[in-house]
Amino acid sequence: MLYLHGIGHFHPQTKIDNEFLSSLDIGVDSEWIEERVGIRERRTTMSLDYIRKTRNVDTRAAAEASTTSTTEMARQAVACALGRAGLEVAAIQMVIAGGCCPEMLIPAEACRLAAALNIRAVAFDVVAACASFAAQLHFLSQMKPEVLPDFILVVNVEAFTRTINYSDRRSAVLFGDAATAAIVSPRIASHTRVVCSSFNTDPSGQGQITIPAGGHFAQDGHRVQLFAIRKTVELIGYFREQHNGHPKCTEFFIGHQANLRMLEAVCGRLNIPEENHLANVTLFGNCGAAGGPSVLSQHWETLGPCAVNMSLVGSGLSWGGLRICKDLENPN
Amino acid sequence: MRNSLDPCTCLAVIWASKEATYKLVSKQLGGSRFVPRQFVTQFNRHFSFDSYDKLVIFYGGAQINVEITRTAQWAHAVATFPGINAVRWAVREIEKCTPPSHQAQTESKAARQLASELLSNCGFADIVLTVAGGAPTATRNNREAVGLGISLSHHGAFVSAAIGWRLTNYLPSLSVYRLAESPTLEETCSTSTA
Q: How many CB atoms lie within 10 A of CB A26?
């Protein structure tokens, strides 16, 4: 079991709304986008002028053209998580990072972030694309607590828009940028615990979602969407089965923020009422590995005692989930 | 539909399109309730309800292509995933002399017969239709599943069958379509008649 002491998020300020995408003349309008994917806005580290002029044809130039660096995004998310955990940065003794589009192939994103945050600790990446957060926490929860330090920082920074070809309407409408940071402990108790985790892959689908080095995002749309629905339904069904009979509490669902229609299809199949479905894809788009955790972060201070079933699906193909319980009365 | 001069036909076409899509999606995800409004239709600017046209339906963010054919007596829809580049289908009237008590059995039998004829006409002599648990499947004679989707439907006096596959090459001299090597059953189509 892992204790979750705090989680934070950051979204850049620049908005890509549907009107902007319509103005790119790529065969979409606001109605088209909302009907199909249910997304209204996304955030980007790049300027809208840059996107309009270049369509981001050269992804290697995108980082230089960005107004916010990935380390700055991470710094903001980490500050939020530390504040909620009531900890100083010096308490962090391990850093794990992941995500879909690191700024550099080497060094590890975790080492770059640790250096930027002035953290002297073991730092390495656990990468499973959009399912990274599930992979990271599952990996940690499988380890013997005695080999882990008291506090571990888990960061996912996604400057996803830098990998998007803004001449391709299929991906241009989907993605946004975000960063999340979570502080977990294998032994120091808190009110919020990861009580169950799961992670798996099907490497035969490795070609279905790709970002080549220096290239653009591409996916085999219908296969991936239906795969995401199928795996999410299976994962949430698994968590329900594992915890069936436990004292009743409000149960929330957070899915991979791929698109709202996929999430609605999942809710329809699992009979999840609208008020128990937490999502931010409508206003922030698909933020890759930062998507699901950013939803949890946005609700961190308002959730009462509850269970949150989080399901994440990504390239690989990979999928994983977390059942997170919050109990204000009993921190153990 | 509200503004159409022929709302019944519109309804039949849209219903058939959404039902065919629902059947296709259910093959991938397992069954669930058919909720038509979850299937978002995208008509092209010049879409015609009159005889033949294509449209796109979105479900859960996935795109499904639909081909619609309408006559004075029936409307027929075939739904396929992008990448399926060969589809053959047929609609046939069930013989009217069938005793009403045997209607259901006869409908199924007629649809299977139609599907078998389609397979044979497309040069798939070694592929047979098997029905396991109510779901039609195309298998080779040795019962090995093949990457060819098959779907049956019936409505009123008509039955229909459709087969779809990913085409790797076509040998005109032999009139033979070659199946893609992948035996994945994702490569399917679904049919609906209204």
A: 16
Instruction: Say whether A265 and B81 touch across the interface (CB within 8 A).
Output: no
> Any chain A CB within 8 A of the CB of B31?
no
Q: Is B174 exposed, middle or buried (0-12, 13-18, 19+ CB in 10 A)?
A: exposed
ipTM confidence score? 0.71
Is B181's Cβ below 8 Å from some Cβ in A? no
Are A262 and B60 a contacting pair at CB < 8 A? Answer: yes
Phi-psi region of A129 (alpha: psi -120 to 50; beta: other; left: phi over 0): left
**pTM higher than 0.95:** no
Q: What is the pLDDT of residues A116-154, one digit of tens each?
A: 999 999 999 999 999 999 999 999 999 999 999 999 999
Minimum Cα–Cα distance from B27: chain A residue: A226
How far is Cα of residue A308 from the mean position of the Cα atoms in its chain? 15
The SS3 of residue A134 is helix
B182 touches chain A (CB under 8 A): no
A317: left (phi > 0), else alpha (psi -120 to 50), else beta? beta
